[in-house]
Amino acid sequence: QGVAAMALFFLLLHILQSDTAERSELDRDLRAAIREQQFVLYYQPQLNGAGRVIGAELLIRWQHPQRGLLAPGEFIDHAENTGLIIPIGQWVLEQTAAQLRRWKDDPLFGDLGLAVNISQKQFSQSSFVAEILGLIERHGIDARRLELELTETLIVHDMEDLTRKMTALVEHGVRFSLDDFGTGFSSLSHLKRLPLSKLKIDRSFICDVLTDANSETIVRTVIALGQSMGMTVIAEGVETEAQRRFLADNGCTQFQGYLLGRPMPLADFSTFVQRHNG
Ligand code: C2E
Ligand code: CA
Ligand code: CA
Ligand code: CA
């Protein structure tokens, strides 16, 4: 029995060590990725009810030299926990502004909005507002083309700081949307106090909106709520035409999901826009 316990101990030790090794390897690689700018932004189209492209959500990918193209699920958590999300987030914003500048006076692309995911750590930085305003100024872009996606986890954190920063940016034209709406704990009074222009219904509700009565109720309620507060409601994760129709019939006006278009490289997104809006 002593031998078995000993074996178990060494097995556990081995698992712990290899887990730590894996994590430090990720850490080392991620730091190199930031230095060498190994990231790519994919564009997932957002369409209105008439099938016109109104913009895109930017989703980060990591072109890892050995492991290939990695989805955010493979590294964003680590980036958040170590603070590496700060330089990564700055890179994303810089790229976004540069793209908006390139599109600025283009008749086909000039009106598109780009939505960027902002992590809690990033938003909490005291320099956040100044950085965004500096970015807009430096690139000479129309602030209204920039949309920042926040999640509900931010809300419970520090309402005062949140409201102050959001208001300062909204005054310059920047728009905010509440991502993954319905999965967090934000109350209606919170919602009412924040200068949000859009609610994004979380994919988990859209996924079974036609098969689960609770999801259906939640989706209907969120749409009505958004409408009554003067916010645009966008559904994410729309995969079937039946889902899209249900959403549209209930007053949802914007759609994002595999049905409309998968996240894609910029060149493909340009073609996509030309095909839909041209
Ligand atoms: P999210 O903001 O909820 O992004 C939507 C995710 O759903 C994306 O996964 C997208 O590829 C996926 N998706 C879109 N449409 C569909 C659909 O119809 N069906 C299904 N099954 N999935 C769909 P992705 O690209 O893997 O991103 C995952 C998460 O990583 C994002 O969730 C976001 O929280 C985070 N993320 C992505 N890019 C960034 C970034 O630049 N900065 C930060 N801080 N987080 C990011
Ligand atoms: Ca998002
Ligand atoms: Ca989302
Ligand atoms: Ca989601």
From TrEMBL:
Keywords associated with the record: c-di-GMP
One of the record's GO molecular function terms: cyclic-guanylate-specific phosphodiesterase activity
UniProt-recorded name of the protein: cyclic-guanylate-specific phosphodiesterase
Keyword set includes Cytoplasm: no
Residues of the full protein shown: 176 to 453 of 453
Transmembrane segments: none
UniProt domain EAL: residue ranges: 23-277
Tagged with keyword Oxidoreductase: no
EC number: 3.1.4.52
Source species of the chain: Ectopseudomonas chengduensis
Superkingdom, taxonomy of origin: Bacteria
